[in-house]
Each structure stands twice: as C-alpha cells, then as structure tokens.
Write the structure tokens for this entry.
Amino acid sequence: MYKQWNLKTDLIGPISIISNEKIEEIILSNPQENSMSLAFKRYGPLEMGKNDSVEEFETFLNHYLKSENYDFDLKNLNLDKCKDFQKRVLKEQCKTEFGSTNYYKDIAIAINNPNASRAVGNALRNNPFPIVVPCHRTIKGNNEIGGFSGDVKNFYKKILLHHEGNEIKDNKILKKSI
C-alpha cells in the first residue's frame, strides 16, 4: 500500500515522497501546482507515513540542501518500475557529482548507445526520482540547460544548478564542469 510523506524546503518548496517498501516517486512542486496536489492527482488519497527509505531520503535531502556530499543508496528506489533503458540512464546519471554537469551525449556514450542522446533526454525527463537521480545536472551539447520534468521554464532546474555552484546566463551554463 502506497504512503505519502510531504516535506517543505526553502530551496524548491514542497516535495512529496510516495513509497511502498521503497520510494516509488519523488514529486517536486512546479510553478503552477504544489507537490501534494500533483500526488493526489496521480495516486488519489493516500495514508500519510514514512519508512526507512523515506528516512534515508530525508537525510540525503538535508545534506544536499546544506551543499554537503551524501550518497543515497539506490536500493531505496523502486527502479523496477522503469524500463531497462531508463534504468541504465538513471544509474549512470547518479555518477554525476554535486556541482558538475554532463551532456545528454555523455550519458548515451557511457551506456554504450552513442546515438541515443534524445532517448537519454526522454529517460531523464521522466525520472521518477529527481534530486536523488540528479537529472538537473545534464545539459545540452551547446551548454543550454535543457528541460526539466514538469517545469516548462526550467525554474527549478536553474535553482538546483545554481545551488550547486553553476553560473547560468541566457539559459546557458557559463562554465561546464565534469
């Protein structure tokens, strides 16, 4: 049975975590709607509660918000809900460290599918575990920041990239780091 746990952050506002034994989805608010409304639309009314996986996410998030390094154990995420290609993309994306960025093409090459940049973008756009799987760190080959799930103006992607020390001007990363 799914449960929901809600957190409020100063950096990006409300976050809702949907879990069973593992985390099923991390829902960020977007400029039009908060995470609790989005969770209700996707799952209906849920019992409030958290488990060890959600506790681990809270610890991870507290470290992240303080710009501290903290490795989140992927066994706490239900990756079984993802198709094989997306699992490979998400696991590879987790290697991108705090403050650094990569290109969609970098991920495609790393998973031995060098012509799959667009598919990588789609896999990251549908990432059910934002922040933990740092899809916001992947940018276009011309250093434009690219898209971010449910955020047409990339409001939150810019906030997360800036939080990690990246400079953005005219929707581009000024200095890409790997």
Remarks:
- The CA atoms of residues 104 and 150 lie 18 Å apart.
- The radius of gyration is 16 Å.
- The chain is about 35% helix and 15% strand.
- The chain has a mean pLDDT of 92.
